[in-house]
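Moderator note: this is an archived Q&A kept for reference. The question asked for a predicted structure of one protein chain; the sequence and the answer are reproduced below.
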Amino acid sequence: MARQDALLRLHKSLLARRDHLRKKLAEELAQMSSTGTGDSADVAFESGSDEMTSQLAEFDARELTQIERALSRLKQGTYGICEGCQKKIPVGRLNALPYATHCVECQREMERYPDWADRRGGGNWEHVLDPSSLYEDKEVKLSDLETDLSHNR
């Protein structure tokens, strides 16, 4: 029951953070859309300020997306389950990073090997071999085989 209570607290925390980020993003967007007037130095300063505000807004938007995904996982009943190994993510990790989708071990593997998710079956299916291609009749020329053998001498 302690895990359930912790998940309820995390749900409230995620909702509060989501609301905070939404408000902050609205303010950042309003700040970027306000146009100022002045000399070229003012315009240059505002341009640099807008760039920084834009980068902060992008960071906040990414966090907001992760929080929305975590809230969706809560509704689906999959919150706190590692997407890699399907084991429970420890509550301590969720307290530190409430929108974590992987346990520490799987996260380390993902960081160490960027194509890790693909190898576990969660990624790009373009690299999967089409079994029907194994049984296709392919025309092989004897001269091609002889050429290959002659290179090894």
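Archived answer notes: The mean pLDDT is 77.
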